[in-house]
Amino acid sequence: MTRRRMPAMRPLRFARRWVALWLVAIACAVTVSLLPAGDVPTPSIPNFDKALHFTSYLALSTYASMLFASPRARSLAALLLLAVGVGVEAAQHFLTATREAEAADVFANMLGVVGGLVLGATPVARGLQWLESRLPITAPRTL
């Protein structure tokens, strides 16, 4: 008896576009994290930046759960996001003069990634499939 492997991706009509959007979102998170501190307006609420780290990585991880069907693929995406979070903190330390690397930021990122994995076990994981089912189906253009 052979075991059938679960496909890595969810069945999405626009899978490549959704993955590209996810990669752009990651690039945006990295860019904002490396901008000079004065260029990123934030309210003077204590630990507000930790909440931003958590929600950003929660969104990125949840989105990955909507893209990837197999537990292995979701785990690899989570590891990628964790590496990005650690890499950004290292870059803030070594490449910027106005940013500080903080272990608490890495921890907030990690909690966000774990939260996205948890949401991946709920109906939220089928969010992109739901969205695609509501998009109008258009016929290919003819010249």
Automatic annotation (TrEMBL):
It comes from the Bacteria. PROSITE patterns: PROKAR_LIPOPROTEIN. The lineage of its organism: Bacteria, Pseudomonadati, Pseudomonadota, Gammaproteobacteria, Lysobacterales. This is VanZ family protein. The keyword Transmembrane applies. Keywords: Membrane, Transmembrane, Transmembrane helix. It comes from Novilysobacter selenitireducens. The chain crosses the membrane at residues 53-69, 76-95, 107-125. NCBIfam families: vanZ_1 (NF037970).
